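Protein: Ubiquitin thioesterase OTU
Species: Raphidocelis subcapitata
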Amino acid sequence: MAWQLRCRGPAGQATLSGLGGDTTVAALQALLADKTGVPAERQEVLSGFPPKPLPLSDGDATISSIGIANGDTLTVRQSAAAAAASPPPPPVAAPAPAPAPPAPVPAAAPVAAAAPGAAAATAAAVAGGDFEAYNGFDHMDEDAALAAAIAASMQDAGPAPSAAPPAAAAAAAAAPAAPAAAAHRAPPPPAARAPGPAPTAVALRDGSAVTRRIIASDNSCLFNAVGYVMEGTRSKAAELRRVIAAAVAGDPFTYNEGFLGQDNEAYCRWIQQPDKWGGAIELSILAVHYGREVAAYDIQTKRCDVYGQGNGYTERAMVIYDGLHYDALALSAFEGAPEHLDVTLLQIGSAQEAAASEGAARLVAACHDARQFTDVANFALRCGVCQIGLKGEKEAAEHAKATGHTRFSEY
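Structure follows.
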C-alpha cells in the first residue's frame, strides 16, 4: 500500500503520495523541496510528539528507518545555519538609554501565559493557537500533557509563537490583552482558503524593509528572538532564562504558586532547563530587564500586544509568532540586505518606528492570508490507528487518553 504523508512548509501545506517505507531520505527530501520550496540542503524536517528533527545525513537510508510512518505529518523549516550564512554582527540601533535598575515585574505587567501546571489554561492557550507559551509538558497534568503533545505534533512549518490564567486575570485586565488570549481570538478563516506562499519581508516607502529573521526551532526560540532584537545574537537563551529565574525569585509575592502553577522555587529551576518554552510571562519580564517595549505580532489574529507598555521606555523591539514559534522582526536596509545592517531597536514615536510598525502589520496580514499559522482548536484530524475523524486538539486529546492512540494526521 502506498504511503500518504502530510507536510507543512513555508509555502503552506501539502500531501505527499506514492511513497513507501523503502523510499530513501534523498527521494523524500527532493519531493519536500518541490512541495515546500526549501532546497534539500537547507531542510530541517521534524516529526513526532513533540516534533523533533529527523536524521537526514544519510540520503540512502529509508524513511522508515529514521522513524517516519504512513500518515505522519512532517514539518519542514529552513535550517538556521542556511538562513544565516555567517554569524550575524549586532544590528545597528540608536544608542540605548542606560539600563534600568533591576526591578520585579509589576503585577499589572502584560502577562498572559498560563502556568505550566494549569490544565484548563493550557487548553485555552492551545485553543487560541499559542502552544509555545506553555513551556513543555513536565508540570502539566495528564489531560493537559496530551493536549499539548497533540498540538505540538501538528505544528505549522512557518518560521514561528497566550491565554490569561484565572489567577492572572486582574493583572491582565490592567494591561494589553495577551497575544493568544482565547477570549479574544478571531474565528478561524474559512476552510476553503488554501495556504499559499507568504513573504518574509515587506518593503517600505524609503526602500527599507520589515524583515522576518529566522530563529532556530530548538525550544528556545522566544529567548533567542528577544536576544536577536535586543543584542544582535541568537545565543542568549541560557542567560535570559537565568534573568527570568532571578526576577521570579526576587518577587515571590507576585510570582506565587497560584500565578505560576507551581511554587516559586520549582519554576525558577524549571525555566532554566533548555527544553522549556517561553510565553507571555517571560516576555513581560524581559521587557523590564532590557528597559524596552517588546511588540509581539500574532499571525493568526493579526494582533500586536506590547509588553512593557506604559513603563516610560523610549525604544521598542518586535517579534512575530505563528502560534507555535517565535521569530525576530528587523528593519533591514533593503529587501535581501545582510543582517549586520538590521535596525531592531526603534525610537518610540519616531517616523521610523511608525513606518516599521505599519510594515510589520502588513507582513503579518500577508502571512495570515497565506495561512502561515497553526489553529490547533479547529483543524480536522484523523487517527492514524483507527481512522476516526476528530476536530481539534481537544477531541484528539480525549481520543488519545481513551484509546492510547497517539498518531494523528490532518485531512
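Remarks: Residues 380-410 form one domain.
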